[in-house]
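Handout for the seminar on molecular recognition.
Each group receives one record of this type.
Step one: identify the two inputs.
Step two: read the structure output and locate the region that could contact glutamic acid.
Step three: write two sentences on what you found, then compare them with the reference statements printed after the record.
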Amino acid sequence: MTPGNHVPGPARVRFAPSPTGALHVGSARTALYNYLFARHTGGVFILRVEDTDVARSSREFEQSIMDDLLWLGLGWDEGPERGGGAGPYRQSERSAAGVYRDAAKRLLQENKAYHCFCPQERLEELKQDCLDRGEMPRYDRRCALLSEDEIGSRMAAGEPAAIRFKVPAGRKITVADIIHGPTGFESDMLGDFIILRSGGGASYNFAVVVDDIGMEITHVIRGEDHLTNTARQILVFEALGNEPPAFAHHSLIMGPDGGKLSKRHGATSVGEFRSMGYLPGAIVNYLALLSWSPEGGEEKLPLEEMERQFELMRVARSPAIFDIAKLNWLNGLHIRDMSRKDFHEAIQSFLGDAAARKSAGQLAVAEAAIQTALVTLEDAGSLVESFFHAEPLDPAGEAAEIRNSEAGRVLELALEQIDAIKPAAGLDPAAVDRELDEAKNLLGALKSACREENIPPKRLFRTLRIALTGKTSGPELVYLLPGLGRETVRERLEAARRFAAA
Ligand code: GLU
């Protein structure tokens, strides 16, 4: 099998967040690629919580990450709150069950690891010496040379000891990365690394491998900042007697200035984008496209379509630049695709006072109108507000162009037909559609009436718009008429007729 080639059989993949903060869009993208690959191969998507950093991890962060994943539509098959045959799925619980300790013991017995008694101060000094010589910090293997007896007596005396992995000398390690291609590392650059701290906690590079083995992970898909770790992890896989899984390291998300996407670029967490009125479907669509494109080059894709088409081989290596304009564009497209009912529900929390004093029917028409114009749901309140608002007719402003007899005639014709406008009926999408149809007919009839008097349609529409809103741009007339309702339309047309004749 060529790694990543079409459908490589059901994969078992994991998203392994450390619950030390809210879900960053970069991590959400890692989760998404894992999810898509699992679904594409008919495999299993696992959520593993890497909460070994007790000081920085919290259950609140874990919960918020899970909430965000579910909101994005990236539900997991195995993991916390779902269970599964390879649990537990929190590293703290695996640690308590002795999973890492047992694996480290095995490596000790097989002489692939050793106890290290070096105190922190010595390690700091060593590190500094290496840096002073311009070398990568590396452990000098002092404790690898200790005799069995000495180890025994120091352990018996209760001296704290970490366990270090014995990195084989002179090895060239090749990561056969699906996205990056083969990437080579020299084992001599790595230095013997700690796998179990003196307090009993497993290091990241060890816990990950023990868990990837225990959970039978077939593909590790994660950010390329982990590529060097992968070299270490491959050695641990081998030492534990296991084939390493396939690896795919995707690029990281950068801000427009080329720096890693961070607060200074604006919103970075899924939660922030959510409260700014972005849709989950638009976010996953955008994140997928940051480094991937389907064969046909389509840009707007629902999650199910991405599941069908996603291939690791088509993920680009180049850095992914976060482009808010493109996210906005996609968000708008996803908003237009919502059913009226879903849209109505989605914008409720964004409407604020804008909904007050309007009938359900008027709001339904206004919502239908703004759905065609919104970039993010956050703007729903102000757009609804502006839908009902009219600027005063100012002879020195945009309204000046309706101060003439032709405009006056247009307004007269409109007033003659006004009874055709019904008060907007209700939230029912069918009722809204009926009203829009009636408004369309009314405008059609007015157009014919104007044509008979040689008044061009453009003149008609601009005059009506200015009369109804005081402005030359805004929501389409077919929405404005039923949305404002007959009485308001009549008042505004009459005021405009007086203005035109003044
Ligand atoms: N907990 C690690 C992180 O959040 C996971 C890395 C991995 O997937 O191995 O970066």
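Reference statements: Residues 354-502 form a domain with the Arc Repressor Mutant, subunit A fold (CATH 1.10.10.350). Residues 1-6 have pLDDT under 50 and may be disordered.
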